[in-house]
Amino acid sequence: MPEDDAVLARLQAWVAEELGDPSARVEGLRRTSAGFSRENWEFDLVHGGALPGGREAMIARRDPVGSVLETDRAVEAGILRALAGSAVPVPVVRWCDATGARLGRPTIVMERAGGVCDWFVLNGPRPLAERVGIAEQLCDRLADIHRVDWRAAGLGGVLEDPGAKAAHRAVDLWEAELRRVQAEPQPELELILGWLREHAPEAGVTTLVHADFKPGNVLLEGNRVSLVLDWELAHLGDPMEDLGWVTNPLRAREHRIEGAWGPEELFARWEQRTGWRVDRDAVRWWNVLANLKLCVIVLTGTRAFLDGRFDRVHQPPLTLVRVTLDLMGV
Amino acid sequence: MTVRPDVSEQLAGAARILRDVVAPSVSGAYPADILAGVIATLDAVATGWADVPAFLAWDAAATLALLDAVGDDLAEEHGAARLALAAERPGPDVRAVAAHHTRVRALLADVVTAGPPPALVAPLAAHARERAARYPLDAAQRMPGESTPGQRAPGRRTA
Known about the structure:
The complex is a heterodimer.
Chain A: H1 3-19, E1 25-32, E2 39-46, E3 55-62, H2 73-83, E4 93-97, E5 107-111, E6 116-117, H3 128-147, H4 166-181, H5 187-199, E7 207-209, E8 218-221, E9 224-228, E10 235-237, H6 239-246, H7 252-255, H8 263-274, H9 280-306, H10 318-328
Antiparallel strand pairs in A: 1-2, 2-3, 3-5, 4-5, 7-10, 8-9
Helix pairs in contact in A: 3-8, 4-9, 5-9, 5-10, 6-9, 9-10
Chain B: H1 7-22, H2 29-48, H3 52-69, H4 76-87, H5 94-113, H6 118-134, E1 155-156
Helix pairs in contact in B: 1-2, 3-4, 3-5, 3-6, 4-5
């Protein structure tokens, strides 16, 4: 049976059981190209209890056979459910199968929201004032993530609190992933790991961290940031991690507007919205960690490709290494 | 190259066939995106593969020179390994060149993991920058998750 037909049959059975409606139908199922760490299957759900018109727009995000990221769908669904109704606009989770019993691999089914994803919106054709306005909203949404009362939201039961040692924990995590996937010696990454351990900062506060915040992970309705997507890497940690991620100089085309929006504008607005101070030395350390993380993600994709489980080829992360060494000042 | 079609011609030709014959018949967004990536990879390898052996040989020799410069500061076993690798003569066989290169890189990784001699750090970083500049298959360097060039126009994405 072709893959699309197999997914359709199993998804049909799943939603019918969840709804208690044997007549529920999955229509228009299609795999989209968006989404590199998960398979995205869009479809319409037609059933008696649906909204007027009898049709709901849905998306199933299934773990691929191989990926650039290996994460836990139960954790992601737990975070999304905890954030429902908060100041952070997130997708609505309908069902989660963390074991893969339903579609063969772990899957979250969510309501499909409208909107446009534009990785490079900050440097696109919109007028400057509109682009700056979007950059400010992105900053505000990031600050809102950091201001979530994660204990009250119940996230303490879903995520581990690393306390002041968030930086050390991040190095441990990404080194373990490197060891799991590396296909050849990586002396430059060993040098970077040693530097990170030697200079790891202590976190001043523990917050929710998105860990992959970027224009490519939000939806826009007009000039409004309407939804924050892709929570698979989210965890508790140091908010400087997210600031280090979005100020990574290698990704300036995504996050900066020349002459109008850069790290200093971001920091000032973030400080104003959160009431916390930015630790610039810590942000620089997290810049380095961000690039180590990207290197490891590339190598994870390479490992999956070599194993025949991933459909894309990534070249070795030589440019990432170069930029990282520049940030380290060596 | 005396045997036609040579490797570059075969790879470039395969990319052309995929682009001109297969791609127009691929309608699904996902397979079309993947196919574009395959074609980009074939084009890159067609252009750069012939320079790979020379790159590996240069990288191994330059790395051994880095280690030689700090030879007195290396642990005894690392110094001995360096001498053994410097004595290797992999010859023209590409697989032998690649195996020698991997052993040299493994030694450098061991030296760094053990705590690199301070005098090694700046030259190692300079060499890493040179590697990035010389790498012969640097055709489609993209951020993880970023799609094939030409596929990244703003589009509808949903959650």
